[in-house]
Amino acid sequence: MSRFSALIATFVILVAACGGATAVDPAATSSTPAASFGSRPSVALAIDGGTATGTWPADPTAPLDLCQHATDGSWRVQYAATGPTIDLFVGPHAAEPGHANELALEVDANDRGYLHVDEAGFRTHDPAGRSHMTVAIQPADGGTTLVVTGTTPYHAGLDDYGLAKVTLTAACPT
């Protein structure tokens, strides 16, 4: 990562961390965030279990809302708004049977917890079976929706603790 990219990423994380957002009670909202296609990507996140429990709807003013579909069929989503910072990589075959491990997800919920999934070793490497995540890729008029669901433990230092159920919906316009 270049120094300029690192500076921009740090700035975006600081803006997101200083936004003072609070999570909505997950019981008060749907457990599956709805997707809609606008001119910008949108990401909605729900976490059930542990210190980062909450629901964060998509924010149309998010300073970081990247959604890229590569020529090999993979997807990259980076998102930072007033809630957790999200970095998602979906391999070109991740939605196919037997390839669920081709998914990497990091959710930094600031002081409320850190979640990461990466059995394939795209960034770090998780032991097989540590996390149980799937992705559905749903093409539609105006864009594609990526829906990531599953469970993963929280991560602190060298140890895992607790368990979080994650539902992430990324609506990527075409």
Compile the SSE list and pairings.
Blueprint: H1 3-17, E1 42-48, E2 54-56, E3 64-69, E4 75-80, E5 85-90, E6 103-108, E7 114-117, E8 132-140, E9 143-156, E10 159-173
Describe the fold and architecture.
The protein is built from one helix and ten strands. By secondary structure, it is mostly beta strands. The chain has one domain. The strands form two sheets. It has a five-stranded antiparallel sheet, with no helix packed on it. The chain has a five-stranded antiparallel sheet with strand order 3-4-5-6-7. A hairpin with a 5-residue loop joins strand 6 and strand 7.
Structural features:
5-stranded antiparallel β-sheet, globular, 174 residues, 1 helix, single chain, 9% helix, mainly beta
